[in-house]
Amino acid sequence: MSRIQNINCIEGIKSLRNNSINLVITSPPYNLDKNTKNKKIIYNSYHDNKEYNTYISWLKEIFELLFNKMTLDGRICINIGDQKNGAIPTHSYIMDFMLSLGYKNFTTIIWNKSQTNRRTAWGSFNSPSCPSFPTTFEYIMIFYSISRKLIHKGKSDLEKREFIDWTIPIWNIAPETRMKKFGHPSMFPKEMPRRLIKMLSYVGDLVLDPFNGLGTTCKVAKDLEREYIGFEIDKTYYDKTIKRLNGEKDWWK
């Protein structure tokens, strides 16, 4: 069942069986290129520069296709950050269209990245004229399809201390620091999908990441004895993921 495919996520989702996915963990592109002078987010095969309304419509199409692919108790976790230091509330637009598609809100977790040591975006420094509020956090938005409670049976690998700590919806997790080494401009750390997978699924459940990247979600799912599916449009990222999942040393080279 587990597989990684070098395919556009829309085509990949269409190929899935209905009512087959237990858990989605993903971080779609943030559409930063149009709003970033430095243009730091450069993917190999995807141009992160859609018109904003087009970008939101594109995300809506993807999650609309996913609805019937989810089990009745399926959960979807979307990691996203707002743009322009919160002035463009991307997470709010995602919340709106997810609810309009029939998903129900489970909760929202704040991922505190604690990146305040090198602040440069002050806006009107030391003045109320137009101050900037750099966002040192991102959102992990969690939705479910029909049933909030898991209705299928399974084995949990969640430990008591983990449950107590992780049910506090502010997660202090350091960001991935090896993106330059790995050759991908936007990766979340393994700790994020590890917590989500253990909190929201049973051993043996099927986990999907439609924006696979370098396969962090799928790698953690495999380590935690879940089935996994990942879709990745870029051949270089796809090849690295296969090496990573096969346990090859220096898989990023």
Q: Short description, anyone?
A:
The chain has helices at residues 9-14, 52-67, 90-100, 160-166, 179-182, 191-200, 216-223, 235-245; strands spanning 3-5, 21-26, 70-80, 104-112, 137-144, 170-172, 206-209, 227-231. The chain is α/β, with parallel strands linked by helices and 253 residues long. It has one domain (3-245): Vaccinia Virus protein VP39 (Rossmann fold), CATH 3.40.50.150.
Describe this structure in words.
There is one protein chain. With 253 residues, the chain is α/β, with parallel strands linked by helices. The protein has one domain (3-245): Vaccinia Virus protein VP39 (Rossmann fold, 3-Layer(aba) Sandwich). The protein contains 8 helices and 8 strands. The protein has helices spanning 9-14, 52-67, 90-100, 160-166, 179-182, 191-200, 216-223, 235-245; strands at 3-5, 21-26, 70-80, 104-112, 137-144, 170-172, 206-209, 227-231. An 8-stranded mixed beta sheet has the order 1-8-7-2-3-5-4-6, sandwiched between helices. Helix 2 (52-67) runs parallel beside helix 3 (90-100). The longest helix is centred in the N-terminal third of the chain and has 16 residues, at 52-67. The two termini are 27 Å apart.
